[in-house]
Amino acid sequence: MTSAERKEAISAYVFIAPFLLAIIFMTGGPVLAAFFLSFCKWDILTPIQFVGLENYKEMFFNDPRFWKALYNTAYFTFLSVPVGMVLSIMVAMLMNQKIRGIAVYRTIYYLPSVLGAGVAVAVLWKWIFNADSGLLNYMISLCTGIPMSECPKWLASEFWSKNALVIMSFWGVGGGMIIYLAGLQGIPTALYEAAEIDGANRWQQFWTVTLPGLSPVIFFQLIITIVNSFQIFSQVYVMTDGLGGPADSTLVMVLYIYQKAFKYYQMGYASALAWVLFMVIMLATWLQFRYAKWVYYEGELRK
Amino acid sequence: MKNVRSVLVAFVCLTLLSAFTLSGCLKSGGSGIKISSWGSPEENQILVDLINDFGKKHPEIKVELQRIPYNEYTTKLLTQMAGGLAPDVVFTEVGNFADLYLRGALEPLNPYIQADHIDLGAYYPSVVDRFTVDSQTYVIPRDTAPICVIYYNKKAFDEAGVAYPTDDWTIDQFVAAGKKVMKADASGKVTRWGFIDDWVMPEPWVYDFGGSYVDNVKHPTKWTFAIDPDTMKAIQFRADMISKYKIMMPPAGLAAMGGMGTGDMFSNGTVAMFISGIWKTPTFRLIKDFKWDVVMMPKGPNGFRGFATGGSGYGILKTSKMKKEAWELVKYISGEEGAKKLAQTGLAQPALVKEANTTFLDKNDPQNKKMLLEAVKFVKYPPMAKNWDEVTHSIIGPELDKVWNGTETAAEAMLKLRPALEKNAPQQK
What we know:
With 303 residues, chain A is an all-alpha fold. Chain A has a domain of 198 residues: MetI-like fold (Orthogonal Bundle), CATH 1.10.3720.10. Chain A is 70% helix and 1% strand. Chain A has a two-stranded antiparallel ribbon with strand order 1-2. In chain A, α12 runs antiparallel to α13. The radius of gyration of chain A is 23 Å and the shape is globular. Chain B has 2 domains: 178 residues, Periplasmic binding protein-like II (D-Maltodextrin-Binding Protein, domain 2); 196 residues, Periplasmic binding protein-like II (D-Maltodextrin-Binding Protein, domain 2). Chain B is globular and about 70 Å long. At the A-B interface, α1, α5 and α12 of A face α1, α3, α11 and α18 of B.
């Protein structure tokens, strides 16, 4: 190792040190503890009992709520991530125009993300989704002429409740927009000029220059948003009073883990659920890396 | 690479060091006793005052009050017990009492009661009985809270020309009154509903109809919810109030009230009758637009009465190292002084019969609160099973959502619930 290489290695470690240390000392212990607990029965107070694979057996063969929670989480992820991504890219491209006052527009679109997806925002959306007097049904009724009483019942309906969560997740497109915007500005203008000289129209430019140039950012966003949406919790908790109703239609994995651990004191079972969720997320991430051939890095040579 | 390693080692040492010092700080507590509780600021103030008075009588015992949100209460206590940091005295109610008792967290109080000649006969027998298992008492009761209190808006009844209800009214009279007090605007949108419960509460109807959840409340072996025909009728009745009699706001309107509770609907006049415990009194005393009173829940169709019930008291955790001092505090706050202060706020019906018959029955609204002295005879308590919360919230609850939404009848829901309830039999161990 040359001295330059060593220097680089050291700075690399220093840069990742805060995260690495946090993982080792803050998350690592609990993660390992959860792994061991997942083979045990424990209600916090009475002594821990080793039960082998029983929690996992129960989960896979005997617990309809586990499958329901997994389905609900997957439904939310597979709907909210792609649509949210398309919306973010669209907004980012609009915000990439050179017009007067663009900074103001960018700020406006980013504002919801500053507020985040916390409790206050969830309460706000509860009102928007109110079937009888909410803003959303009012708009639908105004635009389509359908009376409000026949509009979707959103959070009260088994069918619409998950879709309501998906719609609410678009509140966060501004966060994605900022990252795509940075990605768009990193694409060299020379490429567009070259494409134009070759006679490419706007649409062709988008497919052959913009998208490949943006692909590393899309890849990054894909991984992050999938991980995040598998972990959706606080919005659901607030909007359904921690129950995941009606009729378990919004019972997502983390909410189920929370219920099992902190409402019903089944720490072992909850740990097993958490580990299964972890494996699902790992698998999803691994698959994305495995099939990441579509990602194009600048300066990379393709054979 | 050697540098990197030494930097890492240094970090490890620092972190470990800080962890040790931190845990050291946590362990070294004061010499007093700790009491934990939950509740609104008004409810909390009662306890603060009582602790101050106690301090004057027992200057040698320092008391620290730990206020925990109700939703996290039991979890926090269990965690603190596991970590050796638990309070000595705990406030507990009929539900989380079972959680604590079944995990062996509570100190049996019989020896203390006998040593000090405390007369438990001065309390309502039903609430003492709730906190007593196999003749061992674990909690000295503070209050009893039958959920049989129907608050009604007198102005709404006057406008509709309906006579005020009396305690001996029937279910039919209740539904008829509910229909008459409804109001709608020109477009047909309801502006005043007939009835609503404090939260989705099937229990009061189940008990009032003579139904049940379990074969034996204290030593349950089997859920009877899905096989008891009276329970089924009660569930169907609550659903009928929504979709057949149309006196109750459907779940669609309620699901998204954005932080507003149904109690606010009573306060602002958008519902004429509201069922809960007497604890809503301080809140409703703030109503300026109309007069209101309370009436006992109507008699069930079998002529029977039964009321789902709350209620609370004070116990001592087994882990306490200062049990003698803790007992002194329990004795004081659940005695006459505590009962008086509680009764004056109108928040609860004291478990001490004498105080319930005197201080509690003051001139303040609601005028008919004396009906509670009668109602306390019909109280029913939730089953003492470790998995009761899970069964009621995660198995029964989601299925009943479909009944409230009108996509299933009570009979269909019961049929679907049977296998799940059989599989998840009541657990006491």
